[in-house]
Design goal:
Chain lengths: 322, 329
């Protein structure tokens, strides 16, 4: 957990962006501190990539300021960008060069990066064996790793990764997560965007939730999620009797259409008999007691992770997701 | 400025590794022998016909052209062109100089006269057209512009690298043309006199300023003009490459402009304000040879000025767009 005294590396204040006649980003504000992994969570089209592009001066904000280590990204590009390593969307490298030549190319654009540093970052991302092959022969996972090597070259204080696990297999995702955590432990501030709540939960300390170009909430991941995970799945036998008892309890609501609140992953693992209820943790124990007392066999009680959509519903108080 | 050098190094490396320059050399190595062969055939034929007496041949050409002047079917503009040609050939004849002496140097001179308006610009486009748009198509522009380097420096390094390669292309065209044609015609011919300084007044040629220069010097003057055209075309292609996201579109736009220029030139147009278009001003070497300009009122200085203005505007547009634009994809 990061205390509030730790140094602010990235500060975004009242940033807006208008493209054509359309406002893409409305008043986005958040800070990222040293050593933390900051999640940027939102569905596709919420403005995540646009915001990231503004963080690295690919797009100029219409108003507001973005500061990295105290330097304004859009006014003092050279000083500010020195402290940022980034992958915006896909890690696109020159496919007609080798991995090593790519790194050399980017190293030349910044003073103070020697061969030794290049070898170091290659070592960090464990790409030694293929680094002298052409990038066109790399797999997606290797390109992703080369992208990170490129981002780390200049010893940045802030690492910006846009959907870093996109397109990776489960093993690759796990490795990537572990890797990002390691970097944060070494004092790097890491900014990660994602459209998957589970990924943010597993990876991040704090999160900003964005939808329709607005930041809905910023805070610790656990605090934002608590209160939204009131859904509990029950496997009871006999199911019909169990359901009758549960529906009789005033602190327990039966969810008739679980598809609307649970995501597909969870639904796939549920039996047809399963009952989904909305019940707080304090009341669950009493419900179990009642069921057991009535001779209902309680086979499984399972609290569910909320979906991103649910979280949005709760934050916007019923307004549907844009 | 010291950090500009590694950036230029990067850009040169990318041009080389993309093998675009090799393609240019390959095109030259394939096409120049073809032109040489064609030229050789023509030389053989005239040799048979005139028993290698070039005076006879030249006299024949003058007579042919004179005959066609009396025909009603020949348009007036062509007549003017032929009258001028006749007067020049007579000048060569009077001074006992063969204007088409077959040798490597003369071939190179003739080849460059023909290549300046389309062939060399085309070779330059092979490199210039995707120098910026290529980075956008591949997405690498994001990696390039998120470095702690100001955007104008990134663009300037690309422009400098491009101009270096333009110079290299012009130089290689000269060298390859000379070396290959020399195999067929011999490598001599540097000190043959060539007349320059013809001034065209109406349909008459003013001979007062005409003087002979050795062919090597003529070649040098020509080289300078070809290089200048190359630089201007490169800057225009550079601008298009900045403005257009797709490389294909960038090539098509420049090609269309160049070909339009060639068509307009051949129309010997009555539309006199067309002379302010850059593409009808590319035939700078014609002024050296004393050919009739495509539109009345054009002169070497005029064409140089028009090209320079276009090129400078292109560079200004490139930089102001590139440094301000949002990179949205």
């Amino acid at each position: 957990m990061n205390d509030h005294f730790s140094e602010i590396v990235l500060s975004v204040k009242n940033v807006t962006k208008k493209i054509g006649r359309k406002w893409i980003i409305h008043d986005v504000t958040f800070d990222v501190r040293k050593g933390e992994i900051f999640g940027f969570l939102g569905p596709n089209g919420a403005g995540k990539t646009t915001t990231i592009r503004m963080l690295v001066d690919l797009i100029k904000p219409t108003s507001g300021t973005i500061k990295v280590c105290g330097y304004d990204v859009n006014r003092q590009q050279e000083q500010a960008l020195r402290h940022i390593g980034s992958i915006v969307e896909n890690p696109e490298m020159y496919s007609f060069l080798t991995g090593w030549e790519n790194l050399e190319h980017f190293a030349r654009m910044q003073p103070g990066i020697d061969r030794q540093r290049i070898a170091e970052v290659v070592d960090i991302v464990r790409l030694e064996r293929r680094i002298h092959d052409k990038v066109s022969t790399y797999s997606l996972g290797m390109r992703q790793r080369l992208g990170i090597a490129q981002a780390l070259l200049g010893r940045p204080k802030l690492l910006i990764l846009d959907e870093p696990t996109n397109g990776l297999d489960p093993k690759g995702i796990k490795e990537m997560r572990h890797f990002i955590q390691q970097l944060a432990e070494e004092g790097l501030a890491v900014f990660v965007s994602s459209h998957l709540l589970s990924e943010i939960q597993l990876l991040c300390d704090r999160v900003a939730i964005i939808s329709g170009g607005r930041v809905l909430a910023v805070g610790e991941v656990d605090a934002l999620i608590s209160g939204s995970n009131d859904y509990v799945v029950w496997e009871l036998k006999p199911a019909a009797q169990g359901k009758r008892i549960l529906s009789g309890l005033e602190y327990c609501d039966i969810v008739e259409e679980p598809e609307s609140v649970l995501d597909d992953n969870l639904l796939a693992g549920m039996s047809a008999e399963a009952i989904v209820t909305c019940i707080s943790p304090e009341h669950t124990f009493r419900a179990v007691e009642r069921l057991v007392a009535s001779g209902v066999e309680v086979r499984e009680v399972h609290r569910m992770n909320p979906t991103l959509e649910q979280l949005f519903l709760q934050m916007t108080e019923g307004e549907s997701l844009e | 400025m010291s950090n500009l050098v590694p950036l230029i190094q990067n850009e040169c490396l990318k041009i080389m590794k993309r093998k675009r320059f090799y393609v240019v050399l390959l095109v030259l190595l394939v096409l120049v022998p073809m032109f040489t062969y064609a030229q050789m055939k023509a030389a053989e034929r005239s040799q048979e016909k005139f028993n290698s007496d070039w005076r006879l041949e030249l006299q024949q050409r003058i007579t042919d052209n004179e005959n066609s002047l009396s025909s009603d079917r020949v348009p007036d503009e062509w007549k003017r062109y032929r009258q001028i040609f006749i007067q020049q050939m007579q000048y060569y004849l009077e001074h006992d100089v063969n204007p088409n002496h077959p040798n490597g140097v003369t071939f190179t001179r003739e080849f460059l006269n023909n290549a300046i308006s389309l062939f060399i610009p085309l070779l330059i486009m092979a490199i210039a057209s995707d120098i910026v748009s290529g980075e956008r198509t591949s997405g690498t522009i994001k990696m390039l512009l998120t470095r702690p380097v100001k955007r104008w420096k990134v663009l300037l390094s690309k422009l400098v690298a491009l101009l270096m390669f333009v110079s290299l292309i012009v130089l290689s065209t000269f060298i390859i043309a000379y070396l290959i044609s020399g195999l067929a015609f011999g490598y001599k011919g540097f000190d043959i006199p060539v007349f320059t300084g013809f001034r065209i007044v109406g349909s008459e040629v003013d001979m007062t300023g005409v003087h002979a220069v050795p062919q090597w010097m003529y070649l040098l003057m020509q080289g300078g003009l070809v290089w200048f055209v190359g630089i201007c075309v490169a800057m225009l292609a550079f601008m298009v490459s900045v403005l257009v996201r797709s490389t294909a579109a960038s090539i098509v736009i420049m090609m269309a402009a160049l070909i339009a220029g060639n068509i307009l030139t051949n129309m010997a147009s009555a539309w006199s304000s067309a002379k302010y278009l850059f593409m009808v001003n590319l035939n700078l070497t014609d002024y050296l040879a004393g050919n009739l300009p495509p539109i009345e009122g054009m002169s070497l200085n005029f064409s140089l000025a028009v090209l320079a203005v276009w090129a400078v505007c292109a560079v200004i547009v490139s930089f102001s767009v590139f440094t301000r634009r949002d990179i949205l994809n």
